[in-house]
Amino acid sequence: MNIANSSAPPRDPIAGVPRYSSAQIALHWVIGLAIIVMLGIGLYMVGLPKDLAFKSSLVNFHKSLGITIFLLVLIRIVVRLVAGPPPLPPMPAWQRAAASVTQGLLYVAMIVMPLTGYLGSSFNKFSTRFWGIPLPMWAWDDPGLRKIFFTVHTISAWVLIALIVLHVAGALKHQLVDRDRLMERMLP
């Protein structure tokens, strides 16, 4: 075994394209799809009447899925720090910077959104349940703090939607316009 190449990113055996690790690819797609589901549920449930019994079940599901995504994002960050990303294909410096900023903001939003949702849920008289298991109550019933956290939660949802659109548009540009095979790095 060549020790010099042992830390190199995995390559597609046929095309020779540097790729993310299998764990990074799986986490990317699972987290991405789960976030899209979460955003859809969040946008849907805010329009439901407060006294609807179904809304309470949906809110509890939303919280559990949100905490699960948060934990997966933490795992993804650790895996990324250990495995690292494959090298980017040649591109202008501004595109490299835009990709880096967008990706960094995606990670920030994926951390801020569940934390503010959980903290907003902590400043009330009801406990948050994680797949039926009650989590510790970190705070007291405080409508003012709850409003602050839920406002940040809502703003971060809209920021995350914009970042996802930008991320997908950039990936499609690389695939369809540049044809630099960048998307192949993250395909299963």
UniProtKB/TrEMBL annotation:
GO cellular component: plasma membrane
GO annotation, biological process: respiratory electron transport chain
Localization annotation: Cell membrane
InterPro entries: Cyt_b561_bac/Ni-Hgenase (IPR011577), Cytochrome_b561_oxidase (IPR052168), Di-haem_cyt_TM (IPR016174)
GO MF, one annotated term: heme binding
Domain of life: Bacteria
Short name of one Pfam family: Ni_hydr_CYTB
UniProt keywords, alphabetically: Cell membrane, Electron transport, Heme, Iron, Membrane, Metal-binding, Transmembrane, Transmembrane helix, Transport
Annotated transmembrane regions: 26-45, 65-83, 104-121, 148-172
Sequence ranges assigned to domain Cytochrome b561 bacterial/Ni-hydrogenase in this UniProt record: 19-188
Membrane topology recorded in Swiss-Prot or TrEMBL: Multi-pass membrane protein
CC cofactor: heme b
Family recorded in the similarity comment: Belongs to the cytochrome b561 family.
Protein name: Cytochrome B561
Species of the source: Caballeronia sordidicola (Burkholderia sordidicola)
